[in-house]
Amino acid sequence: MDNQEIIIRVATPADQHFAAIITDEMEASAKARGTGIAKRSPDYVAAKMAEGKAVIAVTKDGTWVGFCYIETWSHGQYVANSGLIVSPAFRKSGVAKSIKHKVFELSRQKYPEAKIFGLTTGLAVMKINSELGYEPVTYSELSQDEAFWAGCKSCVNYDILMSKDRKNCLCTAMLFDPKDHYEPKETQQHFEQKSKVYERLLKLKQSRFLSRLRGKSSARSEKLKSIFAAFFNF
């Protein structure tokens, strides 16, 4: 569908009837990718809408298109743009990028001093984040709020996270620090230069973690371990 027919805006209580559709699609998408996400209930998503801490995309005739919400941690020092999801019928239309930009803008308005971070298993989201000025970081640079990490318990990869003492997992951490950051042009250029490397390392990361859980080792993974460590602190 033509992207111009899609409206991207801050969600309101009037959008709460979409909550169950959104959480069902989040779960289905995670299963299809073979990756995990922290599960959220329809009530949780509805509350974000009521608080004005979410962005929704809909068509002019009221069809749900996509969604993302804001979470705060460490007394507002950290903000996460979480739960980005797009309806299958509207994927690869550029709407995910537009939603990410809108929720980033909303986060900066509501929490101008906060560090904005994200966890992702996807190269496409990494690319969008880089366009906004996010940089790949180690998990130690994220919020250490116990409530944040508790949210990972519903993720299928939680055992992996805990086996690494919360220092790493299948997700890649990215951070925007308003007080110390590169310009979006710089982070975007860096990503474009390293995108093939990131793609290989993301795949290797998943392979290494899953192999470790199965008690196996990979000769190829061992070869690239030093390179991998430079990017993801493995």
UniProtKB/TrEMBL annotation:
Domain N-acetyltransferase: start-end pairs: 50-110
CDD domains with a match to the protein in the record: NAT_SF
UniProt-listed Pfam families: Acetyltransf_1
Gene3D superfamilies, A to Z: 3.40.630.30
GO terms assigned for molecular function: acyltransferase activity, transferring groups other than amino-acyl groups
Protein name: N-acetyltransferase domain-containing protein
Native source organism of the sequence: Cnuella takakiae
